[in-house]
Structure formats: C-alpha cells, structure tokens
Amino acid sequence: MSKLDGKVAVVTGASKGIGAAIAKALAKDGAAVVVNYASSRTGADAVVAAITAAGGQAMAVQADVSNAAQARGLIEAAVKEFGRLDILVNNSGVYEFAALAEVTEAHYRRIFDVNVLGVLLATQAASEHLGEGGSIITISSVAASIHPATTAVYSGTKGAVNAISGVLANELAPRKIRVNVVSPGYVVTEGTHTAGISGSEMEAGMVAQTPLGRAGQPDDIASVVAFLASDDARWVTGEDINVGGGVR
C-alpha cells in the first residue's frame, strides 16, 4: 500500500517544472491528482498522460487561482470528480525581476496577485473541504531569506506567503489540518531555459554559492512535498523547509 492511497490532491500550476514533478510524485505515492494549469493545456495533458500511463489517477483543470470564482471552481471540480480533498499544493507562481527604478504598478500587481492572492484564494476554497489530516503545502523560495538584488517584488511575495502560512498553520490547527512551506533554491526548469538562465554565468554563480555544489532539479522539491503531504509528516506544521542544497 502506498502512503497516499485514497488521498486526493490539487496541485496548482502543475503543467510544467516543479508543479509537474510534484503532481507525478503524489500520484506515484497513490494520490488521485488534479493538475491545475492557467494557460498550458498541452503541458497539463502531458502530465496527466504520464500519471495515467503509470497506473495513477489524474485530471487537468484550467483555473486562474488569482480569481476567486476560478479558484473555487478548481477545488469543486476536484471534489466532484474524486469525492474528497486531502492535499493542496500551492505551486502557481510567476517570477519577473526588476530593479527598484523599474518597478511598476502592473509588475507589482501581477506578481502579488498570482503569488499571494492566489495562495489565499485556493487555500480558502480548499479549507472548506479538507478534514482531519489534511495537508496544505505552499511553494515559496529561499529568495525570501537571501534577498537577491532586483527581486524586491518577487521576494516580497514569498515573504508574504511564508507569513500567511504561519498564520494559517495556527488557524487551521484546531481542525488538525497541517500547513507548511517548501522553499526551493535554484531549480532548473523549462522557465529557466526560456529565460536564458540555464547554462549562463548567472546559473554558474548560483551553483557556486550552493554548498552541495549543483543546481536543483524538480524532483528534489517534489520528494519533500510528498513527505509533507503524507502521514509521515503528521507532527509537522508551521514549518518552512529550505530545499536549496544548503543555500540560506
């Protein structure tokens, strides 16, 4: 018997990168998984296909979690299809860096809407269906603690979700729902390739600052999330777990 057998999980922003790896890891451990996507239906369908080909259960659901009605619709679709909800992984996020002089209202609102409001709305909707033993995991970033230049807005969103998660860990504890944060360091994804970071001097610099001496991979993050989603982490709540090869 796998450790997540009978559980149902929603993973936001799961069409690629870290989110896709998380969805596959949860399914491998036995959970039925709702693969959320905002725009990449092709990517989400590929994740669902990989899960079902391996014998798991999954479905793709489009939703912009920064929209209250869509966030609620995502959770309701999961409960309608699979009959319950046990795990929410708040992975949806955008990153766009700008020096102070280049910060605009549109830049601020776009990043805060997805990275912070999206977490609140998805968690609010999910909390109505989570029961005792439920697990909420939000993907943050070591940027919230190491403060890289030109990331004032992005790092601000991650500091915000860290604080929000700490509050919700206390607020939901009486219902025996656990709330934790996973903070990755530098991870190679489709996004880092598209942004030109992979293979660049910037990447080399980040690896050089990583005590374990390599870039992270999506599976490095997914395995920690799978642990937090399971009963193996039944006594873990209110934590921010850095998963960055020693960067802090």
From TrEMBL:
Molecular-function GO terms, alphabetical: oxidoreductase activity
Keyword Oxidoreductase on entry: yes
Database matches in Pfam families: adh_short_C2
Keywords: Oxidoreductase
SUPFAM superfamilies per the UniProt record, alphabetical: NAD(P)-binding Rossmann-fold domains (SSF51735)
Family of the protein in this entry: Belongs to the short-chain dehydrogenases/reductases (SDR) family.
Protein name per its UniProtKB record: Oxidoreductase
